[in-house]
Design a protein that fits this description.
About 20% of the residues lie in helices and about 20% in strands. It is of the alpha+beta class and about 120 residues long. The structure holds calcium ion (2 copies).
Amino acid sequence: MLDGGGSEAYGTTISSYVWTGAPDPDDVATPALLGLPLGVYEFTLVVTDSEAHAGAPDTVTIFVKRPSDINGDQAFNAVDVQLVINAALGLDIGGLDADVDGNADVNAVDVQTVTNAALGVG
Ligand SMILES: [Ca+2]
Ligand SMILES: [Ca+2]
């Protein structure tokens, strides 16, 4: 989900949110983006206040990846396995998310899931 709800207008109120990008999000504060294919997306938000002043465009980049693709390169291989092993060992993997099953713990289950993905069996 995109969130433009933190935008502020000084002394006025925000009257519109205009998002551009492909696919083109709904022009609301927090448009939902569901079912995007894997890839990298860029969206730009322009907010306009009640006096028709448009703010500077704000651009966000969104990466859609499968959870097992730890480094987001669209491939499942030994690099992903090594990253999740490193994370399970408590090593720094540069802010990547190695918690494949989303249980807030990186452990052997995540390692096995990524290994299976790399082997094409999961
Ligand atoms: Ca990968
Ligand atoms: Ca986990």
